[in-house]
Amino acid sequence: MDILWGIAKGFTYAEIAEQLGISKQTVPVPTERLVAGRNAIDLRLEVVGITRGFLSSLYIGSSEQLVPHSRLRVFLLEHLRLMVFAAQLLMTVGVLVVYLYRPLMLIAFSVILMRRLGLSLQRLDGANAYLKQRLAQQEMELARLHQEERIVAAQRVRDEERQRLTVDLHDGLSGHLASIIALAERQEAATIEQTAREALDDLRLVIHSLDIGDRELPVALASFRERLMRQLKRLGIELDWSISKLPEVTGVTPAHALNVLRILQEAITNARKHGQATRITLRAGPNADGKAAVIVVDNEGIPFVRCDGGSGLNNMRWRAARLGGTVHIETLANGTRVILALPLCLPENHAAGEPTVVLA
Questions:
Q1: Please, what are the averages of pLDDT over each run of 10 residues along the chain (360 residues)?
Q2: Out of 188, 248, 316, 321, which residue is the most buried by the measure of CB atoms under 10 Å away?
Q3: Is 271 buried (19+), middle (13-18) or exposed (0-12) by CB count in 10 A?
């Protein structure tokens, strides 16, 4: 350090220290002691305690000669120290990366996967909300269509019931009224009374069938028995009735009940008019395999003669088909047997076809 040069030039020690990058400290140097020629300065370092102290090397020369040395010293003591620390830190990071690259890669992959999972869950929640909205709209649409269908179905049922009543009244009551008119023209009073009673019974049969509900087929048969017994008693015909073993039949509607009663009425009317029966037996129960209900009407009179069948038999076939059942007619030694087989669950939609009638 060019301390002597600085002192010779009149600089203070603090100014020299600031230029040379050493600690600032003002040390007055008596200029009167400087002489021309060579001067010597004795520097003494006082250390407090047991701490060791030292002075760096001194360089004497001009400022142009000492500035490079000062810059090199600053670089070595300040910048190089930071560079060494940075290099050590970089080497440490490199070593950690070498030994921990697998866990770091797993952590990185886990972060990426978790991010993708979060995005997928968000999209899934959005899709779920959209589907719920669409489902609610579809349910509302289905409810609306169901309500409309119920209205249409109710209207269709009313139309069918209206048509059924019209047909039954036309086939039953109108025929009796026509007979009454014809008999009245011939003035046959006894026959007119009988025909009028039949017309009244027929009208009651139609009206009573309107009050029959599901699983109430025995109720309809019991009411039919009461009217039938009074009619047969006047004619001197014995009636044997037993329906206690009739299995439960479901899906019964007023139209179903009326069709069953019409078939039985036709069978008994044929036995009374054409078979000249003196005794009629009606019994009901399950068939052999228990999968159908069977109603059997036997009459003791003239055996049934095989033929293609008139309007009465055709009506029996048509009504049995609407019930989803069958009609079986057997010729006995002293009479005729009519067997009506019904499914345990009657169909909702009435079939228009006709069953096969077996004559034996």
A1: 43 50 50 75 70 65 68 74 86 80 82 92 92 92 89 75 64 63 63 67 70 81 87 87 92 87 89 84 92 92 66 83 90 89 82 40
A2: 316
A3: buried
Q: Which residue has the tokens 């009606």?
A: 282
**Closest to 273 (Cα-Cα) out of 312, 319, 317, 316:** 312
pLDDT on residue 23: 47
Q: At what angle do helices 254-273 and 217-235 cross, to 10 degrees?
A: 20
User: Taking the model in full, what pTM does it have?
Assistant: 0.50
Please answer whether residues 199 and 177 qualify as being in contact, where contact means their C-beta atoms are separated by less than 8 angstroms: yes
- Closest to 354 (Cα-Cα) out of 312, 320, 330, 309: 320
Q: How far apart are CA 126 and CA 123, in angstroms?
A: 5
Q: Confirm if 213 and 255 have CB atoms less than 8 A apart.
A: no
Give me 84's structure tokens.
């060494």
Give the pLDDT confidence score for residue 131 in this predicted structure.
Answer: 93
- Taking residue 343's Cβ as centre, other Cβ atoms within 10 Å add up to 16
Q: 């069948």: which residue's tokens?
A: 309
Residues 210 and 254: their CA atoms lie apart, in Å, by: 5
